[in-house]
UniProtKB/TrEMBL annotation:
This is Tetraacyldisaccharide 4'-kinase. It comes from Jannaschia rubra. Belongs to the LpxK family. Pathway: Glycolipid biosynthesis; lipid IV(A) biosynthesis; lipid IV(A) from (3R)-3-hydroxytetradecanoyl-[acyl-carrier-protein] and UDP-N-acetyl-alpha-D-glucosamine: step 6/6. It catalyses: a lipid A disaccharide + ATP = a lipid IVA + ADP + H(+). The gene is lpxK. The lineage of its organism: Bacteria, Pseudomonadati, Pseudomonadota, Alphaproteobacteria, Rhodobacterales. Transmembrane segments: none annotated.
């Protein structure tokens, strides 16, 4: 879906009219998260958010997996597999699976650490532990009660914040901010911007930085397309790299790259005499024949200070 514009503006008539539905949604979420989950014998680290759409959870999970690997800890990701048809538990294998099978984010995550898709998160975590996981990274499971979480990190896009502060469908929130932060152990704001975090737990701050690949983007004519939570962030990254952006197309988050859409995007790039460029997450949805023709800009999360997170991992024995 594409986020409605009124979600990012101060509350107006439409958000006020939808607020009763938001109250029902918030109450249902509160009842769901009150359920008691199960333990699977290893620490469970949850990376989630309070809003619909992307906030930087996937780069955060990748950064955590790399941090744990450097500590000698085998961490497996368990995720729902949004956009995929497999119910799981199934271990993601990019060599034989496509985004239509497991979703785009699991395919990307599987390049860094063992990743499982599972509609039943507890079953997915048990499968991961049986396969040797010493820690489970629960991707986008903050509002899912299936597992007891030993460390919960709420990721916030500093540029978007919490939008108009209303709960779905009146705004972008999955639950009220105060209720969500009361269950979180840490908040991680990503990017520039000032976000009000009342009663916030331990705070982390970071930014997404392009990975140094040796590619010289300065002056390169590009046509950029992206189907992520905030495509504008990707376009801004290309501008910061010095690329000559001749055209952009913002797609819906996780939008399928159909043959018709790909032909249209390719035609636009050709008319603009520009190199097509997209995100890592979008690239895994491309057909294999096109992956060599579309460039990507990999980004990684850089924290200002790892010490609070390292201390939390120490407390978990990781």
């Amino acid at each position: 879906m594409r986020a409605p514009a009124f979600w990012s503006r101060p509350p107006g008539l439409l958000s006020v009219l939808l607020s009763p539905l938001g109250a029902i949604y918030a109450a249902a979420t509160a009842r769901r998260v009150a359920r008691v989950g199960v333990r699977v014998g290893v620490p469970v680290i949850c990376v989630g958010n309070l809003t619909a759409g992307g906030t930087g959870k996937t780069p955060t999970v990748i950064a955590l997996a790399e941090r744990l690997s450097a500590r000698g800890v085998a961490a497996h990701v368990v995720t729902r597999g949004h956009g995929g048809r497999l119910e799981g538990p199934a271990r993601v294998d990019p060599a034989i699976q496509e985004a239509g099978d497991v979703g785009d984010e699991p395919l990307l995550l599987a390049a860094f650490t063992p990743t499982w898709v599972a509609r039943d998160r507890a079953a997915g975590a048990r499968a991961a532990v049986a396969a040797g996981a010493r820690a489970v990274l629960l991707d986008d499971g903050f509002q899912n009660p299936a597992l007891v979480k030993d460390l919960s990190i709420v990721v916030v896009d500093a540029g978007a914040g919490f939008g108009n502060g209303r709960v779905l469908p009146a705004g972008p929130l999955r639950e009220p901010v105060a209720a969500g932060l009361a269950r979180a152990d840490m908040t991680l704001t990503i990017g520039d911007g000032r976000v009000d975090l009342p009663e916030s737990p331990t705070r982390l701050h970071g930014r997404l930085e392009p990975l140094a690949t040796g590619m010289d983007w300065q002056g390169l004519p590009v046509f950029a397309f992206a189907g992520i939570g905030r495509p504008g962030k990707f376009f801004d990254t290309l501008r910061d790299l010095g690329a000559d952006i001749r055209g952009t197309e913002a797609l819906a988050d996780h939008q399928p790259l159909t043959p018709a859409l790909l032909r249209r995007l390719g035609d636009r790039a050709a008319r603009l005499s520009a190199q097509p460029v997209t995100t890592e997450k979008d690239a895994v949805r491309l057909p294999p024949a096109l992956r060599g023709r579309v460039m990507t800009v990999p980004v990684r999360l850089r924290l200002d200070d790892w010490a609070p997170l390292d201390a939390a991992l120490d407390r978990l024995g990781l």
